[in-house]
């Protein structure tokens, strides 16, 4: 049985402050560091031994991966990074508080920005310092491919070539692969893997730092998927993520 583990990064400083983050390169909070270490412990307890790992160009995912691998004493494994695993670009919302936006524009509008499949937030302007085309780390990427905002649909579209050309390929010759990335870039992967409809993906919220295991047969047909951890606790954490986009009463 081949195993893929998807791991959303631990809580970031902006998760803690409840701000839209997207491609902003914020660090882990103290809680996030602990969550990343805990994820490593849980994977170790469950006997995981990875052949290689993937992550994004953003430090909250990279550090989560490193901390988890450190707990597992598997820091030596090959790691590949790709901008295609970055978080959904949150456009002009990046930096703004989610609950404050809900007070201003309504819970429904914020849900559309956060979870609708094909409605992107307003883009950042070309001369905005948040424009990733101005960031040297993306200079190796065709500027046409670099988003100024994204819907989940667009995140899926830029993630799929990397899944098909790289991660899926690596699963053909490896047994266990770890991907440390982001709430929405992982929702994009999960939608694609499980063939979840555009409507149903709206209700999927990924908690930070909880390993999500996918098991495949040798032909890479998905057999089953499950989170590592207590079901009730995970359910609560998912609800907390959903509620981040609601106005404070
Ligand atoms: O970019 C962000 O703000 C978070 O990583 C994910 O946020 P969301 O749960 O609001 O989509």
From TrEMBL:
<feature type="site" description="Transition state stabilizer">
    <location>
        <position position="182"/>
    </location>
</feature>
<feature type="binding site">
    <location>
        <begin position="114"/>
        <end position="115"/>
    </location>
    <ligand>
        <name>substrate</name>
    </ligand>
</feature>
<dbReference type="InterPro" id="IPR005952">
    <property type="entry name" value="Phosphogly_mut1"/>
</dbReference>
<comment type="pathway">
    <text>Carbohydrate degradation; glycolysis; pyruvate from D-glyceraldehyde 3-phosphate: step 3/5.</text>
</comment>
<keyword id="KW-0312">Gluconeogenesis</keyword>
<feature type="active site" description="Proton donor/acceptor">
    <location>
        <position position="87"/>
    </location>
</feature>
<feature type="binding site">
    <location>
        <begin position="21"/>
        <end position="22"/>
    </location>
    <ligand>
        <name>substrate</name>
    </ligand>
</feature>
<dbReference type="InterPro" id="IPR013078">
    <property type="entry name" value="His_Pase_superF_clade-1"/>
</dbReference>
<comment type="function">
    <text>Catalyzes the interconversion of 2-phosphoglycerate and 3-phosphoglycerate.</text>
</comment>
<dbReference type="InterPro" id="IPR029033">
    <property type="entry name" value="His_PPase_superfam"/>
</dbReference>
<dbReference type="GO" id="GO:0006094">
    <property type="term" value="P:gluconeogenesis"/>
</dbReference>
<dbReference type="InterPro" id="IPR001345">
    <property type="entry name" value="PG/BPGM_mutase_AS"/>
</dbReference>
<feature type="active site" description="Tele-phosphohistidine intermediate">
    <location>
        <position position="9"/>
    </location>
</feature>
<dbReference type="GO" id="GO:0006096">
    <property type="term" value="P:glycolytic process"/>
</dbReference>
<feature type="binding site">
    <location>
        <begin position="8"/>
        <end position="15"/>
    </location>
    <ligand>
        <name>substrate</name>
    </ligand>
</feature>
<dbReference type="Pfam" id="PF00300">
    <property type="entry name" value="His_Phos_1"/>
</dbReference>
<feature type="binding site">
    <location>
        <position position="98"/>
    </location>
    <ligand>
        <name>substrate</name>
    </ligand>
</feature>
<feature type="binding site">
    <location>
        <begin position="183"/>
        <end position="184"/>
    </location>
    <ligand>
        <name>substrate</name>
    </ligand>
</feature>
<keyword id="KW-0413">Isomerase</keyword>
<protein>
    <recommendedName>
        <fullName>2,3-bisphosphoglycerate-dependent phosphoglycerate mutase</fullName>
        <ecNumber>5.4.2.11</ecNumber>
    </recommendedName>
</protein>
<dbReference type="GO" id="GO:0004619">
    <property type="term" value="F:phosphoglycerate mutase activity"/>
</dbReference>
<comment type="similarity">
    <text>Belongs to the phosphoglycerate mutase family. BPG-dependent PGAM subfamily.</text>
</comment>
<feature type="binding site">
    <location>
        <begin position="87"/>
        <end position="90"/>
    </location>
    <ligand>
        <name>substrate</name>
    </ligand>
</feature>
<keyword id="KW-0324">Glycolysis</keyword>
<feature type="binding site">
    <location>
        <position position="60"/>
    </location>
    <ligand>
        <name>substrate</name>
    </ligand>
</feature>
């Amino acid at each position: 049985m081949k195993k893929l583990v998807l791991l959303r990064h631990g809580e970031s400083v902006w998760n803690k402050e409840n701000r839209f983050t997207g491609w902003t390169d914020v660090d882990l909070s103290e809680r996030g560091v602990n969550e990343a270490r805990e994820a490593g412990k849980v994977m170790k307890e469950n006997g995981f031994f990875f052949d290689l790992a993937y992550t994004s160009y953003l430090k909250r995912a990279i550090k989560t991966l490193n901390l988890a691998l450190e707990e597992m004493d598997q820091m030596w494994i090959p790691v590949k990074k790709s901008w295609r695993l970055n978080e959904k670009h949150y456009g002009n919302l990046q930096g703004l508080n989610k609950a404050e936006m809900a007070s201003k524009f309504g819970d429904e509008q914020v849900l559309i920005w956060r979870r609708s499949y094909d409605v992107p937030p307003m883009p950042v302007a070309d001369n905005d310092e948040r424009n990733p085309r101005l960031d040297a780390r993306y200079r190796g990427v065709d500027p046409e491919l670099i988003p100024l905002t994204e819907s989940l649909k667009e995140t899926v579209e830029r993630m799929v070539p990397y899944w098909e050309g790289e991660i899926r390929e690596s699963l053909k010759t490896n047994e266990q692969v770890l991907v440390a990335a982001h709430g929405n870039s992982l929702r994009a992967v999960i939608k694609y893997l499980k063939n979840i409809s555009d409507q149903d993906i709206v209700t999927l919220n990924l908690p930070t730092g909880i390993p999500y295991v996918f098991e495949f047969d040798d032909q890479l047909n998905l057999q089953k998927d499950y989170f590592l951890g207590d079901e009730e606790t995970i359910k609560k954490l998912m609800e907390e993520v959903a509620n981040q986009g609601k106005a404070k009463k």
